[in-house]
Amino acid sequence: MALFPDTPAFSSASMLRRDQWLIRLRWFAILGLFSGVVLLKIIDLGPPSSILWMGISGAILILLNLVYMAITSRKMQLGMSKLVTLLNVQMVMDLLVLTVLIYITGAEESPLSFFYVFHIILASIIFPGGFSYLYSLLVIVLYSGLLVLERSIYLDHIYFFHEIHLADDIRIVVAIWFIVVITMIASAYLAQSVTERHRRVREKLKVVNQKLQEINESKTTFFRYASHEMKTPVATVQSTLMVIEDVLGEKVDDQVKNMLQRAIGRTAEMIEMLKDLTDLTYGNFQERQKFESLDLKKMLADLIRDVQPNINRKKQTLNYQAPNMCCDYFGDVIALNKIFINLISNAIRYTPEKGEIKVILRKAGTDYTVVVTDNGPGIPKAEQVNIFKEFYRTPSAKKQISDGTGLGLAIVMRMVELHDGNIQVRSQEGQGSQFTVVLPIEESL
Questions:
Q1: How many C-alpha atoms does 4 have within 13 Å on its Cβ side?
Q2: Minimal CA–CA distance to 120: which of 57, 35, 190?
Q3: Any bridge partners for residue 426, and if so which?
Q4: Which of 64, 233, 242, 284 lies at a C-alpha separation of 20 to 30 Å from 333?
């Protein structure tokens, strides 16, 4: 996060709530100030002029707080920039009043200087980014400036405690005790307020997250149920169309025959989409996951043997490289099959005739790495960030092959994540693509 972000990290409503909280907090500060004035009068400590100015400072704070309340009332519509400006004005004015109070109570001798800390804490709570550092700098400038002015001819030092030895006068002890008590109570209130606010936000996020999970599970259940139930009637329609095509044979004219073939093709696409939707929700059902020991090398060899007819049809070459040893792995057989059959099928589909495909299995440390490389058209760099999104197909892929749901790589990503792995793509337009799947061995055991 930047020290001073360009855009605020809070909404206007959130900043308004912070402003109202600061105004309420200021009433407690005013109450504490007047309590201090009363205490000083009772114990007869401090010059009368200083006590008078403390009362005047309290009256100024009351007036300012009433103005702030009027501005932040519900009738006033304030934008983010105005709210931030208003909050900064309040903080700066409070620091100026506090600096005056510190001066009239002895400057470097005044225990009120510790109250500067509260404003730094408040700035870090109220504002995003590095505003607290700005207020730290402002406090340093104000306090240092006060001490420098007292050493000049422009400002006289006020001996609030006169010539008293501080530790020997019970009045000083009581006054310091009062300041310490106020400091502790204010610190506890600030800490508890922030902690409670964070706890409430965390509880709300927990509830919202639970609701989102329930909605996601309901959506997943619906997708799985709908895709499963729709496959049978669509397959029946497809079978019926194929029977009609066989029965009619050459007796039907070309236009009707073309329409039948298109209808059969569309039903085939729909069945494939329903299968993809089922696969896409596979990892969401823990009861359907079946992790078991397997030989990754043998699994890939079996998959390559299954797709060999498609490779031969396009006169392609598939080069499979694997270690000269058994590659034991613990995973979900169904999910792993879907990962690699999708990647290899895509390589076959987009690689031109007589092209070359490579499938390489390696063991590196605690990972298995499977690399599928083709010399197809490649994927433009601008489109690579989207290829794992559901229903996304690159324009070049659509141009080369019209059919496809755009779910294949989304399914691959889901299945890889099911095994705590990751998948990466390296591709350059016109020079093919390389998909690398990394499956951690130790984390899967």
A1: 5
A2: 190
A3: 434
A4: 233
Contact, 423 vs 413, CB < 8 A?
Answer: yes
Homologous superfamily (CATH) of 291-440 is Histidine kinase-like ATPase, C-terminal domain (3.30.565.10)
CA–CA dist 406, 403 (Å, integer): 9
How far apart, in whole angstroms, are the C-alpha atoms of residue 355 and residue 376?
8
CA distances from 406 to 124, 386, 402 (A): 47, 11, 11
Full pLDDT tens readout for the chain, 445 residues: 344 444 445 677 778 888 888 899 899 889 989 998 998 889 888 888 889 999 999 999 999 999 998 888 765 567 778 888 888 999 999 999 999 998 998 887 787 888 888 887 888 778 766 677 788 888 888 888 888 888 788 888 888 876 555 545 566 656 666 765 676 666 666 666 666 667 777 788 888 888 887 777 666 666 666 665 676 677 777 778 777 777 777 777 777 777 877 787 777 767 666 666 666 665 554 444 678 889 999 999 999 998 888 888 888 899 999 988 888 898 888 889 888 988 998 888 888 888 899 999 998 888 899 999 998 888 888 777 778 776 666 655 555 555 555 677 887 888 888 888 999 988 888 888 999 999 998 644 3
Quickly list DSSP for 245-262: HHHHGGGS-HHHHHHHHH
Q: How far apart are CA 177 and CA 445, in angstroms?
A: 62
Q: Which of 392, 410, 398 lies closest to 278 in space, CA to CA?
A: 410
Give the three-class secondary structure for 199: helix
CA dist 280 to 31, 220, 277, 389, 432, Å? Answer: 63, 9, 5, 11, 26
What is the distance between the alpha carbons of residues 409 and 392, in angstroms, rounded to a whole number?
Answer: 9
**Domain spans of the chain, in order of start:** 12-163, 224-284, 291-440
Amino acid found at 188: A
Contacts 24+ apart (CB under 8 A), 167-173: 171/43, 171/44, 171/45, 172/45
- Cα gap 376→120, rounded to integer Å: 60
List the helix and strand counts (H, then E) for the chain.
Answer: 11, 7
